[in-house]
Amino acid sequence: MSDIKALAREAAFAARKVAFAAGQGQAAEILADYLAGQGGKVLSGYMPMRTEIDPLPAMAAHQGPVGVPVIIGKGQPLRFREWTPGVKLVEGAFKALIPEEGAWVEPEVLIVPLLAFDARGFRLGYGGGFYDRTLEGLRARGPVLAVGFAFAAQEVAKVPTDATDQRLNAIVTEKGVTIFA
Predict the structure, then answer these.
(1) Which structural domain, as residue segments, surrounds residue 142?
(2) pTM
(3) What is the DSSP string of the chain?
């Protein structure tokens, strides 16, 4: 399975790069509108890297606490440090920016980055399993909404999956929102 996922990641990176160059359209506004119904809940977003679609405008518009992921260690679930626009950021693991300090929060709604997604609601991540472990742990404690955020061009016919992959509840792209039943 790892070889299949590696090839899928390579193709997905290329597709995302092309989509990124074309622009994000109204994606952040669509995401903010979709998340407006989650006001007050703890939201996690992410600090966009390379050619990832940018969730920062939607995170800034959220009416409630917002956190960003912090990688604690290999094989560990993510933790989330509170974020606000303008907070001082430092480089964390894998060069992802994280708040230098702040409270730890536990998200009820997660904006999840990805390389590819399919119509079943599965996502192809970067291979570390961080979001899968995190979603599994959070979902064991109660309901959690996992929202993939991507370019429409990142959709593939079928994401290769294994038993540890966690399904998204929805995907938001510059073309709209898809809810997975």
Answers:
(1) 2-179
(2) 0.93
(3) -HHHHHHHHHHHHHHHHHHHHH--TTHHHHHHHHHGGGTTS-EE-----TT----HHHHHH-SS-EEEEE--STT---EEEE--TT--EEE-GGG-EEESS--EE--SEEEE--SEE-TTS-EE--SS-HHHHHHHHHHHHS--EEEEE--GGGB-S-----TTPPPPSEEEETTEEEE--
